[in-house]
Design a protein that fits this description.
104 residues; alpha+beta; Alpha-Beta Plaits; four-stranded antiparallel β-sheet; 19% helix; RRM_dom; RNA binding; RNA-binding
Amino acid sequence: MNIFVGNLSHDATEDDLRQAFEAFGQVKSVKVIKDLFSGASKGFGFVEMQAKAEAQSAINGLNGKDLKGRMLNVNEARPRPEGGRGGGGGGGRSGGGRPGGRRF
């Protein structure tokens, strides 16, 4: 089962998360989401646990608990909507790529 962990301290590491969740069962993977450019934590992550019962126990046991000075928001991760991330699209302006569409 994949678990979302929100309100994560920017000081919390993947090892910190692994230790917290291993108290409830076998952890398959841990990922703290980081900014691509700065490498700083975005304040959330995901933990995948082997057994659903252990994962549910971890959710119940860790939701609202303090880790590195922040109260965790822990719940079952929801799958991404179809098509991935969404958002963004290219502009369709013409005019030779110049500001204001003027050509020189």
